[in-house]
């Protein structure tokens, strides 16, 4: 079955403050969508609300993955349904090794009695780590603890590769990456492009999109998608910035919740 | 207000029990003098805890147990503990007395003594008398006095000069009769440049009624000796466990404490190293899981007298349900103990809103030329971490277990004995109700 991910009128708030004011977006398997926009416009909130972060409360709208109601699911159920979020700030968890964590995550998908064999797991993990040019030692380090920003991002991509999701949301995966790391991360994403997999790439720089060519580009301001287009939109944003859009739409302050 | 301890035994009975066991006169005298002290001293003062509200009256009376004819006579939990790895030596105490004691011929030939303390007091007076109740003195408080009056069974481990014992010597302290006094005393003397590992397990079975364990451990580490002391307490909810452990460490000696506090009942333990010698070292690792409505007080202490002495103390405790824990770390560096280093960390992870944890790091420093540090934290499982793990498809329960094990891992993974590490791991699982 081909993947279909539909966001309709999604509204969300944090601590009583509305951040998302009605997001509409439809993605199909094989497509890459980019969400761009200046800081403070609700991009990361969208990512967190989709995954079910406990701090964000969804107050309206719907999200479905292949017809299933995502908002009705617990966080782990969303992941098992095929949603993956590469986080901007992954948690550090002392005492839990990266490999134990990854194996638990893989086994959660396979269910009891069908756990992956240790040898097969290690082979898969080491193979993917090699593609991402990660030091094999990172398998035995505690999860994200003491990882540099770039190492954390690679570790997010490693998880994505091992978990084989249907919808991948990358939240500012490019922030804090040097050009080499950016290339490696982009290669990882490109290697995962598939007919039944959709990508939603959240970024405020065009540079990642030099490596991963999106099919659709959306611009977020004031908690809404205010403009959508093809890859050429990203090019224009890179060249001219966001001011022309603000002018076109009569927006003076693009951030959320400043109108009051 | 003075809290009077109700003495579980009178002088006459104590004397006749001691004589009935054919104890040397000095032991009988020490017991009687201690009993007299117990009648007038006060209970120990525990940091932020009213121990007088605990059940510290159910001592039971001395009852001699049958010698063990076979390990099959042991309750299952105790039998599991003696499976395998008993090549070095094994001692089993059941209730008031020792029921099994064995040391390998090889170690015995090297002069290592591993027997119950009652026997040792008779047969090795010159090795026992100078040390017994010298690290933990009878006159410190009512409970130390009562212990000195009523101790039974116990362990005496003596390692001669320059002897290095590779295999751990093990003891199992089993209580399965609440009417029987259970007060083992562990005495370890490691002579100069010797090396030894001792592991014991305190376990209970079908107590049937409330029991108070009032135990003591004394370790004497001579110049250049290394003692590794590991102890796991897993007594049931009916048992109140009061345990004082103390090591006296001479020049360049080292003591390593590994303690697993896995009791289900109220527990107060105090594990202390007295670093007398220059270059002496203490390393204490305590892991604990509290559950039910347990009240808990764990204290680790290091007292530095020797120059260049170093202490490291780590406690990690997980509290679930309505367990309440007070966790104290006391590093005291005396005047003259220059170039010493004392470090301590206490961390408590609480798994339920009703669990309570209190970590008190205390540094008392009377010398200028030292380094010392402490860290303490008390907190709930981090919601952000749970979210992160769940976002990868891991269930909430599994996510919490991963975080709990992760919390204990830095201590468990450092435990040098594989069997003990695995045992602690499974005890943690049991205590966490998994």
UniProtKB/TrEMBL annotation, chain A:
ABC transporter domain ranges (all copies): 5-247
One GO molecular-function entry: ATP binding
SMART domains cross-referenced by the UniProt entry: AAA
UniProt cross-references to PROSITE patterns, sorted A to Z: ABC_TRANSPORTER_1, ABC_TRANSPORTER_2
Keywords: ATP-binding, Nucleotide-binding
Domain of life, per lineage: Bacteria
Pfam families, sorted: ABC_tran
Family indicated by similarity: Belongs to the ABC transporter superfamily. Ycf16 family.
PANTHER family referenced in this protein's UniProt entry, alphabetically: ABC TRANSPORTER I FAMILY MEMBER 6, CHLOROPLASTIC
Record-given protein name: Fe-S cluster assembly ATPase SufC
Annotated organism of origin: Paenibacillus lemnae
Gene that encodes the chain: sufC
From TrEMBL, chain B:
Domain SUF system FeS cluster assembly SufBD core: 176-407
Domain SUF system FeS cluster assembly SufBD N-terminal: 100-170
PANTHER family found in the cross-reference section: FES CLUSTER ASSEMBLY PROTEIN SUF, UPF0051 PROTEIN ABCI8, CHLOROPLASTIC-RELATED
Pfam families: SUFBD_core (PF01458), SufBD_N (PF19295)
Gene Ontology biological-process entries: iron-sulfur cluster assembly
InterPro entries: Fe-S_cluster_assembly_SufBD (IPR055346), SUF_FeS_clus_asmbl_SufBD_core (IPR000825), SUF_FeS_clus_asmbl_SufBD_sf (IPR037284), SUF_FeS_clus_asmbl_SufD (IPR011542), SufBD_N (IPR045595)
Domain of life: Bacteria
Family affiliation: Belongs to the iron-sulfur cluster assembly SufBD family.
Protein name, entry field: Fe-S cluster assembly protein SufD
SUPFAM superfamilies: Stabilizer of iron transporter SufD (SSF101960)
């Amino acid at each position: 079955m081909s993947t279909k991910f539909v966001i309709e009128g999604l509204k969300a708030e944090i601590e009583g403050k509305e951040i998302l004011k009605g997001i509409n977006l439809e993605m199909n398997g094989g497509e890459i969508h980019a969400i761009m926009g200046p800081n403070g416009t609700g991009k990361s909130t969208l990512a967190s609300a989709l995954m079910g972060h406990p701090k964000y409360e969804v107050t309206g709208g719907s999200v479905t993955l292949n017809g299933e109601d995502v908002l009705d699911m617990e966080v782990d159920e969303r992941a098992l349904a095929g949603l993956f979020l590469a986080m901007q700030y992954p948690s550090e968890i002392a005492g839990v090794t990266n490999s134990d964590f990854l194996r638990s995550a893989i086994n959660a998908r396979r269910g009891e009695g069908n756990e992956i064999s240790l040898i097969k797991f290690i082979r898969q993990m080491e193979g993917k780590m090699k593609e991402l040019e990660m030091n094999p030692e990172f398998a035995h380090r505690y999860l994200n603890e003491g990882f540099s920003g770039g190492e954390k991002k690679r570790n997010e991509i490693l998880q994505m590769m091992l978990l084989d999701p249907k919808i991948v949301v990358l939240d500012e995966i490019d922030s804090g990456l040097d050009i080499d790391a950016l290339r490696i991360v982009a290669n990882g994403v490109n290697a995962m492009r598939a007919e039944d997999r959709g990508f939603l790439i959240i970024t405020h720089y065009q540079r990642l999109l030099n490596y991963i060519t999106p099919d659709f580009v959306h611009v977020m301001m004031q908690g809404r998608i205010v403009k959508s287009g093809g890859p050429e939109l990203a090019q224009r944003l890179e060249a001219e910035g966001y001011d022309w859009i603000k002018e076109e739409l009569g927006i003076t302050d693009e951030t959320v919740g400043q109108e009051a | 207000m003075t809290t009077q301890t109700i003495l579980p035994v009178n002088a006459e009975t104590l004397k006749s029990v001691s004589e009935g066991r054919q104890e040397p006169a000095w032991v009988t005298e020490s017991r009687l003098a201690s009993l007299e002290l117990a009648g007038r001293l006060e209970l120990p003062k525990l940091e932020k805890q009213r121990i007088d509200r605990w059940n510290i009256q159910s001592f039971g009376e001395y009852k001699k147990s049958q010698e063990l004819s076979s390990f099959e006579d042991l309750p299952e939990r105790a039998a599991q503990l003696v499976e395998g790895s008993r090549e070095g030596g094994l001692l089993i105490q059941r209730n008031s007395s020792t029921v099994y004691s064995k040391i390998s011929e090889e170690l015995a030939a090297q002069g290592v003594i591993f027997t119950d303390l009652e026997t040792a007091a008779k047969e090795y007076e010159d090795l026992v008398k100078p040390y017994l109740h010298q690290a933990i003195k009878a006159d410190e408080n009512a409970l130390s006095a009562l212990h000195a009056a009523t101790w039974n069974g116990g362990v005496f481990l003596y390692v001669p000069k320059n002897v290095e014992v590779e295999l751990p010597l093990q003891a199992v302290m089993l209580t399965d009769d609440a009417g029987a006094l259970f007060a083992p005393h562990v005495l370890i003397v490691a002579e100069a440049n010797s090396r030894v590992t001792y592991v014991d397990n305190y376990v209970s079975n079908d107590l049937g009624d409330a029991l108070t364990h009032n135990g003591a451990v004394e370790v004497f580490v001579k110049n250049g000796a290394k003692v590794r002391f590991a102890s796991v307490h897993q007594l049931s909810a009916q048992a109140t466990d009061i345990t004082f452990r103390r090591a006296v460490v001479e020049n360049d000696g080292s003591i390593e404490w590994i303690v697993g506090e896995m009791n289900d009942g109220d527990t107060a333990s105090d594990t202390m190293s007295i670093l007398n010698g220059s270059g002496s070292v203490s390393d204490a690792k305590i892991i604990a899981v509290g559950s039910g409505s347990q009240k808990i007080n764990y204290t680790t202490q290091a007292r530095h007298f020797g120059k260049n002495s170093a202490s490291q103390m780590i406690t990690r405790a997980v509290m679930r349900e309505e367990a309440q824990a007070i966790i104290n770390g006391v590093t005291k560096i005396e005047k003259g103990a220059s170039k010493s280093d004392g470090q301590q960390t206490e961390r408590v992870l609480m798994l339920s809103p009703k669990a309570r944890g209190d970590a008190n790091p205390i540094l008392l420093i009377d010398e200028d030329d030292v380094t010392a540090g402490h860290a303490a934290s008390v907190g709930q499982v981090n919601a952000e971490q749970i979210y992160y793990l769940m976002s990868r498809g891991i269930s909430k329960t599994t996510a919490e277990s991963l975080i709990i094990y992760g919390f204990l891992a830095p201590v468990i993974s450092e435990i040098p004995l594989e069997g003990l590490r695995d045992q602690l791991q499974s005890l943690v699982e049991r205590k966490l109700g998994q």
